[in-house]
Amino acid sequence: MKSKRNRFAGKGTNTRKGSNLKTGRNYTYDKKYEEKKEQVKNREKRNKARKAALKKGTVKLGDKKDVHHKKPLSKGGSNKKSNRKVISRSKNRAKKSTTKRRSTKKR
Hints:
Elements: H1 28-34, H2 37-56, E1 65-69, E2 84-88, H3 89-97
Antiparallel strand pairs: 1-2
């Protein structure tokens, strides 16, 4: 089976407007998405949570930790102390990519 990777990636021949020459990814959509009011508000909340954790001393600059929201801001979660906890960056970002799936095993 052929790889689904962009055939122009890493070759410096990708000349599409707004794309990254190294990866072949077009960031135009990402920029538009990140400029939406809702996303700007969520980013402000995440930054505020990180700043509060820095002030409290639970995280430090460059410590590879994230402030995890137990109920995500995108799903209506708050920025209250009870909804936040500090976990490693890799664990926090792995949680975003996993979803609850039905078990396909027969019982």
